[in-house]
Amino acid sequence: MRAPSPPHRSPVEPPVPPQESGLPAQLGRIVDGFSRLLAQHVELARMELADEARAVGASAARIAAFIPFILTGYLLLCVALSLILERLLGTGAGFAIVGGINLLGGGVGVWAAVRSMQRRPAMLAATRDELRASALAIKSNPSVELSDGV
């Protein structure tokens, strides 16, 4: 007859050692707890950096998408100004209107993308907050014994 298999544990969770007493065992648990805490902070920072990179990339892509409108508007306004000066309010007025609309639309699009980037929280804000919370918890009660579920 087979022995019952141990319950399935996540690969992230280390196996639970048998409870030992004494200073070496307690120090071992404290070191283990700190190492797991550090690993969790590193994982949080990695995930947060990946999210930030995606968000910044999307905002940069939106800005890049509106740059052709600005360049087209500038070009058309320059052509329109030259035609206006040439003919004094002849054909150039149409180019000026089209160029102004392109320039205005591109400027509004870039402004909206930049504002969206400015509203985002600072990079690694969640990691910074978690590190501060961990430091405060350690400072406020250094005699707390760490459990295996740290």
Descriptive keywords:
single chain; mainly alpha; 150 residues
Question: How do the strands and helices of this protein lay out in sequence?
Answer:
Layout: H1 23-87, H2 92-119, H3 125-140
What can be said about this structure in brief?
The protein contains 3 helices and no strands.
Describe the structure.
73% of the residues lie in helices and 0% in strands. It is mostly helical and 150 residues long. The protein has one domain (23-136). α1 (23-87) packs antiparallel against α2 (92-119) and α1 runs antiparallel to α3.
Provide mean pLDDT, rounded: 75
Task: Give me the count of strands.
Answer: 0
Q: Main sheet, how many strands, which sense, barrel?
A: none
Note the overall shape: rod-shaped
